Structure formats: structure tokens, C-alpha cells
Amino acid sequence: MRSVRIRVRGQVQGVGYRPFVWRLAHDLGISGIVRNDADGVLIEASGQRIDEFTVALKNQAPALAKVISVEAVDAPELAQQATFEIAETETGVARTNVTPDAIVCTDCIAEINDPNARRFRYAFTNCTNCGPRFSIVESIPYDRASTTMHLFEMCADCRSEYEDPADRRFHAQPIACPACGPKVWLEDASGELDIGDPIAEAARRLHDGQILALKGIGGFHLACDALNDDAVSRLRSRKHRPAKPFALMALDIETIRQYALVSDDEANLLQDPAAPVLLLEAAGETLTPSIAPNQWALGWMLPTSPFHMLILQDFGRPLVMTSGNLSGEPQVIGNDEARKKLSPFVDTFVLHDRPIARRLDDSVARIVDGVSRVQRRARGYAPDTLSLPDGLANAPPVAAYGAFLKSAICLTQHSQALLSHHLGDLSDALTVEEFEKADRDYAVLMNHSPEVIACDLHPDYPSTAQAEYCSDRLGVPLVRIQHHHAHIAAVMAENHWPTDAGPVLGVALDGLGWGTDDTVWGGEFLLCDYTSFVRVGHLYPVPLPGGGAAQREPWRNLLAQLDSCGLEDRAELLLKDRPVGPLRAAVDKGVNSPLTSSVGRMFDAVSALLGLAPDSQSYEGEAAMALEAAARPFLNEVEPYPFDVANGMLNPAPLWHAMMDDVDSSVAAGAIAARFHVGLANAVCDLARALAEANGAKAIGFSGGCFQNASLLSLCLNRLENRKVLTHSLTPPNDGSVALGQAVIAAAKQLN
Ligand code: ZN
Ligand code: ZN
Ligand code: FE
User: Fold this and answer.
1) What's the gap in Å between 172 CA and the centre of ligand 1?
2) DSSP string covering 414-431, please?
3) How many angstroms is it from 114 CA to the middle of ligand 1?
4) Distance 108 CA to ligand 1 centre (A)
């Protein structure tokens, strides 16, 4: 007989961990007590099989738990108990126990498909191992009264499950059943429809080619039959979304395999409780091309809730699932809002009466070089925290406000960093409102009050304005941080690079970010630690003719590139239908034409040269993604284009001349695109290696939006095979992680 006190750390609250401990103790004949506290879970245990118990606490933990450590200390003084008990949580003690939303679990699926079960075909079935969490939480601590489920009173059957420690639904806050829980109904232009089985009817309407609005976990989707050309085209034209790829949802992996290559790792990630949209290489049967024009990969997800699973079971084919919003605006979450805004797009609404507390877009991920990499971090990932790197644990709490197009907020405290869910594009006024609301929301949920505030150097970002406002209101200092320093600090922090581990040679290949020299940066080699950086290299800067217009119109960047390397005559020929003269005059006078070293804009220029780019991009990255798709089939068989390198400056002049020769010899656009990708990857990596060696950097860090390009990332990782390279996995390489970088820099500066 042994007595121990066991401390379990990690994500162990609100995930059914205490009942799991209770069951385990019963199985192993152990007595004692388990309780939640501010540091996780604390167990007092006595029995013969303590070692077995301790091992199982980690190895057999419930699906949604993330156990970081289990430490047992002998405690002979503990009084021997007759039984094992679960202590009530003392209110106000627990730090937070809000966890991300999770996909439906296999036990619940079995129940939903069992005609004899109480929850047969019930769309809101869940248990402690699955179901909605963050999307229904209104306040903390996390219990039923503080979720949108407080509107539904548990029936006697649900209550007895809820109160039974041996039950899978013990303290499952969203517990519900057909007798007491939320309900689904259909509406169309004529109002609510009186139909026996609304889900079966929704599936019938999808077969008829209708466009449906479906109320999901974190917001509304517009859905239609992915095999129906006409329906998909109608959805595109109604939504005024000419080209941006649509995501797809399928019932199971076997269905996805008919249309895409799915490795074992990818299959696992599809089935992860987060259920992200996973970008998978198209292969096999083809879907309607208008689902994702000029893309080599399609975004697939599995049903994110029983509601979606039932619709897909009845429908039997993959669905297009795109967010339900007006162009540029945030996704709609309320029923009334949906009726008002989405009516022009949809034939039928599939609604339910469980309110969504918080807007959460679908997360997007992909696997590159065997590592899963989040591209958009929202439903299923937020509000997970990351531990801060060694050396920052004692920093004061920081709030950081991120960048612009892919905004997010980051809060740090108690040696953890909480990167908010994706908050969207701040060029939209409603999104800015949402951003401010999310700021208040997170501060309350996390009980956070910052002692330092961080933002971008860019003076006109709405995120900067919010940071200035908060700094004023709270009377705490504001730290302005260079965009690409923040990018690299984010990838360092995500990889737990300790503060005393020396500098990292950061490679930021990006769209646009404000520099410290009144030019716009985006192809940077920065020797970084958490408090400072030196710009040791960059791409040769060229004008950005027309400023913001050059961000939308790729041909402007082609003009700038050709003009800057002595190919003015070619520019005139290629761009003879464009206002080249007036633009050059503006550039000469320095009107609205800042210099930029952006690699993203160089992708635009090459894409424009090859006729792959649209006149005006309908979404960020459109031209670059078309270029990558064209390059894909040629990547292994081509000679890379050359760059000149002098004094840390990467000069693409030789590349442009070689590219012109290839165009003149009618080399295939895809081959040219591939020679560009490989040439860029080689030049960037060779320069990074040289700069790292010259400056004593022990690692190279990759960040910036261009690393969403899986081909580029993969080529770069290959080129630096025997080097220590820090890359993004849990946070996006794009501006979605800039707030994390800002937060750790501000924290480090406070400790300095
Ligand atoms: Zn479940
Ligand atoms: Zn019930
Ligand atoms: Fe950026």
C-alpha cells in the first residue's frame, strides 16, 4: 500500500478528466480524491497499483485532454479513504477551462446511427470527448449556465447521465437529447416549413441543386452539391466570388480518396478533433472545376458536428461548404442575421435554436514534409495556448494586436501565450468592430489585464489604432514592432527557442510589411533575437507603382521588375495595353510608389508575365497560387534560374533575363514557373546559410505568407536539409501569427 499526491498539468479541465481518473481509480482499487485547481488536476491516491495508475493517467487520458506532465510525490501522511471521490471545483480557483470545439466522437456516432438509442439521428449529440466548447461559451468558469445551452433545461434522463461519474456524459455541459435539446428546422422564402424530417428534406433539396444555408459550429455556411456544375456556378455568381476556392466536406475519408491523395498523416489530421479544412492534392475523379480554379490542392474536411454528418449521410455526396457572409464581411452567426443577409444567396435555410456565442471560421491546415501546418487558426484550435519559451516565463502580461489582412490578437500571462482565433480582414468596417469585440471578449474570458501593449509599425492599421486606444485607456506602455521581426519571433516562440540560445537568421518571405527605412519590406534576412534585429540581407527593392493598386494588380509589379533590370523595351511590348507611360512618370516623381523588397509582389510579377494572373486579384494570393499550380508538375525536372548576390542583396536581374529568353523560345509556362520556384528557393537558402554562418546564428527561421506555398517551403527545407530550420506548425506562417511575435518581443523587452 502506497500513498501519493499526483499533479497533472496540461489541458485537463473541461475534457472529462476527473471522471476518467475516477473510473481508473475504481478499476485499479485505488482510494482518494481528485480535484481541479489553478494548476490543473491534483490527485490524492492510496493503493497497491499506484505505478500503473500514474502511467495510465497520461497514456489513457480522454480524447480531448492534452497531458503535459504527471508528477507523483510520496505522501505517507494521507489519511486512508474508503472510496475514491471527485471534489467539487472551488469557484474562482480554476484559471480557465475553456477548450476548443471538437468533432463528433466514435461513441456518439455509433449512438446516432443506432435506431434503438435515445439519440438516434439526433443532430446535437455530444459527450465529454466531443462536441461544441469555445463556440458556445459566454463566460467562465465553463459550466452549463455559462454556455448558450442554458436555454435548454435538461430532462431527467440527461440529468442522470450528467450526474453519473461512470457515464460518458458526466458533466458534459452541452448534453442534450431529442426530448430536451436544440431542434433543427427548415425555412424558405415562404417561411418555416412543416416537414417530418428536416435533415432528410435538406438532403433532397441538395439533390435538386439548391443552395442551402447551414448553421454550423462557429457560423453559417453556404452549401451545395459539389458534383453539380450548375449549382456551384450559381453559388459563385450569387456570392460575387469569381475565383476564391471553395472548401469541401465529405462524410468519410474513403469519399475524399476518390478525389484527392490522402496519406496516413493526412487521414489522421482530417480525423483530428479540430477537423480542419485540409489542403489535399487533387487526384482521381474530378470535381466541378469552378470549385477551385487554378489550384493544385483542394480543401477538404470531415463533418464538424452530428448535424453535418446526418446531412452528408442522407445526401451521399461531397458538399461545397463556403462561409455564409456578404463579400468581405465576417461570417454570419445569428438566425435573424442569416435571414436578413443570406436570403439573396440561398434557396433554403437549415436552422437550429442553439445560439453560437462566438464566430469561429473553419481552420485550414496542410501537411508539408510530414509536418502538419496550420494556415488559418480558428475553430478547433482556439483557445489552445502555447507555452512561452524559456526565459520569458516571468514576463509581465502582454496584449498584442497583430497586423491587417489576417488579424488576430495574442495575450500572454502565466508563461502561456494565447493566440486568438483568426479575426479576419480589417479592411472591412464590420470586421474591425468584431476585432474590438474579440479583444474585450478574450480579456474577460482569460481574466487578462496587460501591463504592456504591442502593435505593428504601420501607422494606419486598425489593429494599431486599437492598441493605441487600449494603451491610453489602461495607461500602459505601447511597443511598436517591425512586421518581419514579429514574423520571425513568432516562429522562434512557436519552436520554444530559448531567450539565451543566441540569434536566429530569420528569412521572412512575405507580402508587405512596414520597414524601418520608409520602404515596404517583404523579402528579408534578419539576424534576430527576441529584443532586436539587424537587417543583414533583403531582396533588391523595386517600386510599388500605385501603392495599394499594385497589391491588387499583378501587372504593375511586372512593370516595376522589368524596368529595374534593363528590360524596359520588353515591358512596353508586354504591357502595351496598360498605362505604362503615366505610371513610369509617377514612379519617377516618387508619387505613390514606395520601394518594396516584397517576394510576394515578385510572385505576382512572374505570374503576370506568364499570363497566369488576373488583371485584378479577387483575393489575396490569387496570382501566386496560380503560379504554384502551374509549376507543380515541373518542379523535379528543371534548371533553376540564377540570382546575383552581393552584400546580402538578392538581385533577380539575371533571373528576369533568363526568363525572357525562355519566353522567347516558347518554353511552357509551367516549366518557367518551376524554374522560378527552384531558383528562388536555392538563392534564398544559400544566402540564408551564408548569413547564418557569418553571423554565428545556430538556426534559420522561416516565416511570412509566401511559406504558405507548399512547393516553396518544401524546396527550401530540402536545400537546408542538414541545418536547424525553425518552421511554423501550430501557428500560420502568414500574418495570422504576427501578434504572437509581437507579444514575445514586447515581453522580452520588458525583461531586458
Ligand atoms: Zn462523443
Ligand atoms: Zn434530454
Ligand atoms: Fe506579413
Assistant:
1) 9
2) TTEEEEPPP-B-TTSHHH
3) 14
4) 4
| Residues lying with their CB under 5 A of ligand 3, a single-atom ion | 510, 513, 735
Query: Residue 458: how many CA atoms within 13 Å on its side-chain side?
Result: 22
pLDDT tens for residues 110-134?
999 999 999 999 999 999 999 999 9
Largest alpha-carbon pair distance within the chain? 91
HEC secondary structure over 184-241: EEEEECCEEECCCCHHHHHHHHHHCCCCEEEECCCCEEEEEECCCHHHHHHHHHHHCC
End-to-end Cα, the chain, rounded Å: 51
Task: Tell me the residues surrounding ligand 2 (ion) with CB < 5 Å.
Answer: 155, 158, 177, 179-180
How far is the centre of ligand 1, averaged over its atoms, from the C-alpha of 175 (Å)? Answer: 10
Q: Is 748 helix (H, G, I), strand (E, B) or coil?
A: helix
pLDDT, tens only, 712-741:
999 999 999 999 999 999 999 999 999 999
Mean pLDDT over the full length of the chain:
95
Measure the CA–CA gap between 82 and 176, rounded to whole angstroms: 34
Instruction: Give the CB-side neighbour count of residue 57, counting CA atoms within 13 A.
Output: 31
From the CA of 26, how far away is ligand 1's center (Å)? Answer: 22
* pLDDT tops 50 at residue 435: yes
Single-letter code of the amino acid located at 16: G
Any idea which ligand is nearest the CA of 742?
Answer: 3
CA 182 / ligand 2 centre spacing (Å): 10
From the CA of 161, the nearest ligand is: 2
Q: How far is the CA of 376 from the centre of ligand 1 (A)?
A: 25
Q: Which residue has the cell 442569416?
A: 338
Q: Label residue 742 exposed, middle or buried (CB < 10 Å: 0-12, 13-18, 19+).
A: buried
Which ligand lies nearest the alpha carbon of 483? 3
Distance (angstroms) between ligand 2 centre and the Cα of 151 equals 13
Closest ligand to the CA of 405: 3
CA 287-264-285 angle, 5° bins: 15
In angstroms, the CA 190 to CA 217 distance is 26
pLDDT at 39: 77
CA distance linking residue 662 with residue 609, whole number of Å: 12
Instruction: Identify the sign of the CA torsion 394, 399, 517, 548.
Output: positive
The residues facing 303 across adjacent strands are none
